[in-house]
Design goal:
By secondary structure, the protein is mainly beta. The protein has one domain. A five-stranded antiparallel β-sheet has the order 2-6-5-7-8, with no helix packed on it. Strand 3 and strand 4 form a beta hairpin. The longest helix is centred in the middle third of the chain and has 6 residues. It is elongated, with a radius of gyration of 25 Å. Keywords: Membrane, Transmembrane, Transmembrane helix.
Length: about 210
C-alpha cells in the first residue's frame, strides 16, 4: 500500500519505491485531497450537577468532588455505547492492488510521458497527526463506501490500475461499462461495483 504522509507526496514520482514495481508516473489530484487528515473524535464529558439551591460546603476542603459518570452506576446505565462502525470489509493493505497498462500522454513540458495512474483518497491510507496509520474504523466514510476502484482512460478503455481494499488485490472479473457518456481523453476513477465516477483527470493522449 502507499506509504503515509511524505511517501504519499512522493507518489507523483516516477517510481514506486518499496513496492517492487517498475517506474510509472502518477498524476496527483490536488483537488481530491489525499487522506492524511486525522478523523477527529469528540468526547463529551457530562459532570453530575449540583442540586438546585445547594451551596458549596464551608467545611475544610470546599465542595465535595463530583463523581465522574462512569463512577455512577445510574448514569453509566443511561449512557449508550458507541455503535460499531461498518467498514465494508476494508482492511489496511501493504501494497496497491493491480497495475494495468500505462498510457502515453503529453506532459507539462510538451514531451510524451508514461502515465500509470492517479493519486488520491481511493488509493491512499489515512494517517494520524503523529504519522501512524489510523485504525480502519476511523477512516473517512468515503473510503469505506467505495472499497473497490478501477482507474481507466475513457477514449481507449485502457485500465491503468485497480484496487480492492477488502482483498488487497486488484479488482477481479471487472467489465468496463459504456464510457461513451464520459468526456474523451480523460482518466477516471470508477467505483468498480456501481460505476460511479469518483475522480477524473483530462489528459492529452499521444498516438503510439
Amino acid at each position: 500500500m502507499h506509504e503515509a504522509a511524505t511517501e504519499d507526496e512522493n507518489r507523483t514520482r516516477r517510481d514506486d519505491t518499496g513496492t517492487g514495481r517498475g517506474p510509472r508516473a502518477r498524476a496527483l489530484l490536488v483537488g481530491g485531497a489525499l487522506v492524511v487528515a486525522v478523523l477527529g473524535v469528540g468526547v463529551a464529558a457530562a459532570l453530575t450537577g449540583r442540586a438546585a439551591g445547594t451551596e458549596p460546603s464551608d467545611a475544610v476542603g470546599g465542595a465535595p468532588v463530583a463523581e465522574a459518570p462512569e463512577d455512577d452506576p445510574a448514569v453509566a446505565a443511561e449512557t449508550p455505547s458507541s455503535a460499531p462502525v461498518e467498514t465494508n470489509g476494508v482492511q489496511q493493505c501493504t501494497f496497491v492492488g493491480f497495475e494495468g497498462t500505462p498510457i502515453q500522454v503529453r506532459g507539462d513540458d510538451g514531451e510524451p510521458e508514461e502515465l500509470g495512474g492517479l493519486e488520491g483518497w481511493w488509493n491512499s491510507t489515512p494517517v494520524s497527526d503523529a504519522g501512524g496509520w489510523l485504525d480502519v474504523e476511523r477512516w473517512p466514510r468515503q473510503i469505506l463506501d467505495h472499497p473497490a476502484t478501477v482507474t481507466v482512460e475513457t477514449t481507449t478503455g485502457t485500465v491503468l490500475e485497480s484496487f480492492d481494499r477488502r482483498t488487497c488485490t486488484g479488482v477481479a472479473d471487472w467489465t468496463a461499462p459504456d464510457l461513451s457518456a464520459l468526456p474523451p481523453s480523460t482518466v477516471v476513477v470508477l467505483d468498480a461495483e456501481t460505476g460511479e465516477v469518483l475522480a477524473e483527470h483530462p489528459v492529452e493522449l499521444v498516438e503510439p
